[in-house]
Amino acid sequence: MNRIAKTATAGLVVAGTAVGAIALAPAASAGTERERWGKTSQGTEWDLSLDRERGIIEYDLDIDSRERGETWTITITRNGTTVFRGVRTTDRWGEIDVERRVRDLPGVADRFVVRAVSSDGDVVRTVLSI
What we know:
Immunoglobulin-like; 4-stranded antiparallel β-sheet
């Protein structure tokens, strides 16, 4: 390949890469995701994820105690206001999933606090902001 052909090819690759990056930029910045996970002292695994997109925040709390029929009392607050309070029982795999959507408040950092207590005293506590 001669020098002119190499230069033209390199220019097209750079231009194509720049156009691809510009095309992807709006989609990548359209939403924000945060996630936190851990284990309790009794070995229960938990995961909290927050996803902000188009004026909505979706929160998803997963608890996996691996014990079928276990009762958990769950409270989730956002900026001090309760957005979920309820009692859930683990399914046949020992899992609970609480998934809800709330409107995003523009210009405000959203701080979610989770407290979940099982019938045998196991506790999930976490804080996550988006």
